[in-house]
Amino acid sequence: MKKIVSVLALTALAFGSVFADTEISLTFTQRAFISTRNNAVKKFDLGTAGDCITFTLQNERAGVLFDIDPDASNKRNGLNHGTKANTADIMDQYYGWINFLDGQLKVQSGLWLKRNVNRMKQDAGKWDSAEYEKYKLGVVSGKIAKDISNLTFVNQLDARQLALAVTASPADTDIFGTLALVDNTNGYVDNRSAGRKDDCFVGFAFEAGYKMEDMAAFNVIIKNESKNTYGFGLFADLLAVENLDVLAGFSMGIGTKDSWVGGYDADNGYDHREWGIDLRARYQFNKRVALTTMNNISCVDGAAAKTGTASDGATFSIWDMVSISAQAKDTIRLMATLEWSYADLNAARSGSLQLIPGIEIKPASNVSFLSGVVIDIEKLGFSAPADDNKTQVSSVKIPFVFHVGL
Predict the structure, then answer these.
(1) What are 257-278's pLDDT values in tens digits?
(2) Which helix (H) or strand (E) holds 9?
(3) How many whole angstroms separate alpha carbon 276 and alpha carbon 316?
């Protein structure tokens, strides 16, 4: 880790001496928690949450960003026995970009997290997704349109992939368009069965956006990440009412019987279908208090919903979240978040609940310490529980998030 920081510091000095107008930033974030599960206490563990060093160099013409997970090698080797063991990569994101025509044309390449649709996360602070936004926009349980607003997310691989993107934003307009080629190691087109060798391991993603001053914003997303799978997303962010921000969206995914989602042949049509409806809102009561809510209902229909037979029908899922943020003092903010989800409305007791009170201490603009309690309750349902399926507190966690930015 010391070597990584040293290299980044030297790079910053060298880059800064060559380009005087270059902006340089370095942030460090570390997450850890104490947890209990099944009445067993787990010790303080740095491996079960994400550590992050983000280093950025940029000016008006170009820039690069490196988001490094310094503990990834230990997690891959299982030394910390964390949730990312054997799956984490040393780079959470890394990409570079070049601006042409005074910023009207931008070419970007690498692996990135950014989404253009407003997700109402102004009050999340440094909480991880699990503590604030459990599910991204799109079909929650989808195989095609999950996390639809992330152009680099490939459902087939359940991971973000390398991408090359071109973004056009003409001068004196409030519109933009992005076309991305996304790596897909499982193949977009597979011609090997026909004895040919011109396979193409690339998916496609497109997004267009339009903003009406401070009143509304619209985003349209189309993804064709693998053979015979198509994802669509449409989102509207409305700001017409003072202090109220409302986002509504619809996502859909379809796939054929010979796509990777599999399934039965329904008259040779699109035998896999899924859709999701998102509704999010944030209301600013005054300068210190704000309320945020996120809601989603999703459906995965037919072929790939369960076992791949026509009799399975649709699987409906629901997720709701409400969170309040209150600035107690200039340096202290109190938060409370409640998340409720039901994985399958056809299942008797597949509901879960999370209660997350927290406190953020922020002595400076780019320095913060965040902690709280995460209470997980599972096996919620509408029917009477069996003796072995009763509602229970599955875990209690005390997270710690330490953040420093320079």
Answers:
(1) 556 555 444 455 567 889 999 9
(2) helix 2-18
(3) 10
- Which pLDDT tens digit goes with each residue over 156-181? 666 778 888 999 999 888 999 999 98
**Predicted pLDDT of residue 337:** 96
Residue type, 357: P
Maximum average pLDDT range among 57-66, 200-209, 255-264, 319-328: 319-328
CB atoms within 10 A of CB 114: 12
C-alpha span between 310 and 271 (Å, rounded): 9
Exposure string over 251-271, b if 16+ CB within 10 A, otherwise e = bbbbbbbebbbebeeeeeebb
At position 289, the amino acid (one-letter code) is V
Residue among 303, 368, 358 nearest 335 (CA): 358
CA distance 247 to 294: 9
> Helix (H, G, I), strand (E, B), or coil: what is residue 268?
coil
Instruction: Give the type of residue at 322.
Output: V
